[in-house]
Amino acid sequence: MSKKAKVAGSVVAGFPSPAEQYFEPPLDLNELLVKRPAATYFVRVEGDSMINAGINDGDLLVVDRSLSPANGDIIIASVDGDFTVKRLRIGKREKGNGTKHEGADIRLEPGNPKYPTIVLEHGQELDYFGKVTACIHQF
Amino acid sequence: MIGLVDGNNFFVSCERVFNRRLVGRPVAVLSNNDGCCVARSNEFKALGIPMGTPYFKLKHREKSGEISFCSSNYELYGDMSNRIISILREEAVDVEQYSIDEAFIYPPTTAAADYISYGKHLRAKVLKWVGIPCGVGFAPTKTLAKIANHIAKKQPDGVYLLPDDPTEILANLPCSEIWGIGRHLAPKLKAERILTAQHLRDASNDTLRAIGGVTLLRTAIELRGVSCHEERDYDADPDSISCSRSFGEPATTLEALAESLASFSAQAASKLRRHGLLAAGCNIYAQIFADGGGGECIGRTIVFATPSDATNEILRAISQEVKYLYNPCVRYRKTGIVFFGLEKPGTAHQIDLFPLSSSQLPNPSSLDKAVDTLNARFGKGKIFSAAEGIGKKSWHMKREKLSPRPTTRWDELMRVR
Predict the structure, then answer these.
(1) Which of the residues A4, A49, A95, A100 is marked catalytic?
(2) In this predicted complex, what is the ipTM?
(3) Taking Cα atoms as reference points, which of B84, B79, B67, B88 lies closest to residue B24?
(4) Is A49 a catalytic residue?
(5) The domain B77-223: what is its CATH number?
(6) Which pLDDT belongs to residue B379?
């Protein structure tokens, strides 16, 4: 009985509810920030190496692994076993796609002059984790 | 065509996604309570350390830095598994998850022109999105797909399509390696000189039925290329539904025994309901702790008034029996429950004149259904019977080498500098 009463709201009887015609789901941050849930990971920032890129200590980053790294992207990569967030700079002689940039000049550039740029050795493969697509800063 | 996708050394691969120091190293994941090796990296396998080797026997090699271990991080593995399944669901017409690291897929008709390319695409996508390397095998039936998957793992590109006439492959495959052939059948098969998958495929239906009933016959028909494991049929009524676990530290109280058994019973009862089965009764047991392993087992057999899948009924029956397992002078290593007399509801069994559930309890099926739903939604063990105990449980699993759970816990996220 109570179920029927709920359904009755959508039956035209008397005045139509103006809300019905304009019904929309409420805004959902996941829809905005997580395009591909199966490939999306959250990571926590430690330190100020990317402060000039708007990434602060303690921020939450949204990382999408499905996106291939391109020159200028802010990415997560592993260097000597530790994960780092840096801006990817790919020099000339780029070859292939995905994570293989054989022969290319690959650099991980910090967003803070206090930190050195990480230069991958010739032939060293980039251990790419994913592309940073958003930074969430909570006050 | 059916595909079988499974994660290579799945637990180890999950650990490696978030801990790059484990890449290229001999690593093994340990069973519950850090007991023994249940998943091994290729480097670990290359050292010749077999599956199931107890952790304590390898501790000195861990100390020397030669090999590494992780406790079972089921929260992580479960999440990574869900990600893989959701990717497969995008790419296939249908997906049936078989275990945490295996799924059958039904490829779209567009894949028929080139299954190898389709398999490579799947594999590359899972590897990129989730970081887990997979093997992908294609064949006309599930039983053959299992075989194809086995071969796929040995291919450099991880993908294999079973040839139209797989006789040569089947001739070299011992029966014991065929999916669904239990060890108990081996002597009977041997007596009939059925030693390989080819022998099994070509045996007469009458012979097969005599040896292993309709289940064995089905397996043989599948080897012939005719699909007869219908959808979800692989999840066929299991021979036994059980649940047991060792205490993190030896237990000494009756409460610990009762609570652990109640919790396992609730889990096993939920599995019964998932399989649509009723159990006629169960054995409960407690194993006494003995230095150096082993230890005597005290068992108790309980037969329910009527076959049941209702947690409350089962718990009530068990709670009256636990005291018989208890001896205040000993410490306990482990408790467990094994259901027996499994049957589908509706098959003939005597009707109890005074069924426990209707007279004393709310309708158990609706109550249990609600509990199962809530636990599925809010996390395992959020809703439980008071008999399972509240608060810290000393019999919980020991997981001393547990890695963070970066995909399910906000306070255990991966850190980047």
Answers:
(1) A49
(2) 0.81
(3) B67
(4) yes
(5) 3.30.70.270
(6) 64
